[in-house]
């Protein structure tokens, strides 16, 4: 999206100077809020001035789901610079750096009406962001429902967000019923979400995928009790920790070192003894859908994967990943 006219250059540069000179003064004045009061004390941005910068993946996904094209976004973790499933909707968005290190000068240049950040990533620079524009702060990078509601509340799209979340609830109910009918006494299943890296393996107990699996009725392996985010495994001797009824393997196929490590671990005799391996319940899944996307569209893509892997029939219009709300000024109804 085209930046504001060049005659604003001087004022923007002056703003940047104020930002950096004010950093130390504001660094100790950070608040624990989940949102800010927006323009002129109002809680909703004017529909004609919704220039939004999103500083984490879940916020970018949520904005697109609500029919918003942000003026600025951070680079994706994989499939750089933008996840494939979002590229068609973000053709006009400017890159403003990394999620862990956004470029404040670029953000200020875009002259946003709203910045959407997360406390987890941006705690230290929050005073600087708030000098550029009103800033809304999410407590978590993976709570896709909170991210969607946060942006919807700020932009007057609450009805659209409500429709999207209601549709999600319907899909969750449908999935839980169908998988219970399909597996019978074998449900619920204990599920392990495993990510292979070049020199170790991670098994997740929480986060984006973990929270969704929990909502769908899956259980965690007993080895993950009280393990926080999960565990990092560096030795094949730890393979029994992964034991579960089903294993979802997150891969980064473009990395030969990861592929080699995956092949090495899965060839080990201890891997061959895992329940999921013996019952042919090891599924390779898309890391973007399962942990990286972080928003409602990615959540629905993950749910689509689960319908497919368990050979369950999708409900009519079940694939919400294809849904995108219309622009605010459009008279078209949301197809969600």
UniProtKB/TrEMBL annotation:
It holds the Pfam family Peripla_BP_2. The keyword Signal applies. InterPro entries: ABC_transptr_periplasmic_BD, Bact_iron-sidero_bind. Residues 1-27 form the signal peptide. GO terms for biological process: iron coordination entity transport. Residues 51-314 form the Fe/B12 periplasmic-binding domain. One of its GO terms (cellular component) is outer membrane-bounded periplasmic space. Keywords: Ion transport, Iron, Iron transport, Signal, Transport. Belongs to the bacterial solute-binding protein 8 family. This is Iron complex transport system substrate-binding protein.
